[in-house]
# Entry
Amino acid sequence: LKIQIHVEVPTDMNDEQKAYLGIALAFRAQFYLDLVRLFEAKECTGSQVKNYTIPENIKGLACCIVTENTTEEQSKSNPRATVDEVYDQVIFPDLERAERMLADYTRTVKTMPDLSVVYGISARAWLERGSAGVDGAFAKAAEYARKAIAGGNTPLTEDQWMNSKTGFNTPQSSWMLGTYVTSKEEVNTGYYYCTFIAQMTSEPTWGMARYGKAFRMIGKSLYDKISDKDWRKNSWIAPEDAGKTDIPENYRTELKGGDWSKLPAYTNLKFRPGSGSISTIETGLIASLPIMRVEEMYFIRFESIAHTESVAAAANEMAAFLNAYRYTDGSYVCEATDLDSFITELMIQRRIEFWGEGINYFAYKRLGLPVTRTYEGSNWLSSQRLNSKAGYTAPWMNYVIPEYEKDNNQGVILNPDPSGTILAD
# Structure
């Protein structure tokens, strides 16, 4: 919950030292941004929510701020700062300093942030502030998203996305920031089941999908909203293609027909094992993951200009993007005419684009969007068919601060535990 923060920035630094400091500041700004978004407890309600309310004394609170001047004694009674305080005292000052420190920095690997990543984090932060009603924030989000897009990264092509050996496991043109795993010394096959690759990939014989029958699938309701002209639809197995021994030509896979037939409908093919290795775990676990893609900056820009320019301008830009990069025939049209309908359509496209990458969680919490898992034909497990109400946060999205923090910091107030407060219909 705490991250050490140093306010001062030395002026007598060489270029290498500036780069190190800028990288550290950028990472810290992103970490604090995530802490705010995870731990701010937002109001929840709905027919399924029982006995869960947000106490007045924790509304608007984020995480604790720790500086180099915080003594051990002070840390034992260090209350949570407000959301506004974390943005004003940590996130935005860090980003401003990182921008200065990395102005002339050229990185060699995408595991370290450069100026474009600082712009990307800034776009994320200002979008959050815009949704919180801060004046001028959406304009800032649009500005920083534009700067991030201008950094040289380009959206994934169909070949890059669908590649059965390198799809979403190898740094590509759109990756602004990512993790790098490059050798077997960096993976622990003994605990492979804890890895993202083992959990999310569907093809490996050693993964949780094939070994534990824990297939990661797209929800039927979202899948049904994907146009047949959108090549991203081939990231999931269509119901009519599940169980076939002859693999339809629109899918790309390392599997043979017999193994393909074992994959159920809606199973994802988006995430691939390292080098496409479906049988050798040591090779399959050597896989990197994207943390920030340039496509996110486009979506931040679309949402921001809908607020600052017009819905029509945002709809036209989103249509141009999808027709240039995602649709096979340029047939996409955004028919939204007001802000609410535009956000609804934007989130459909955003959910398709970033499925499984984790960032849509933040958008749902920020916008108070309803989670709907109970509907006719739902493919969610019956125990997981939890619905939340539009305009409110789903209870499980308010992260709980561990009791351990209270044991060591008497000044902290914990979020209420949402366990058991929402039940499937």
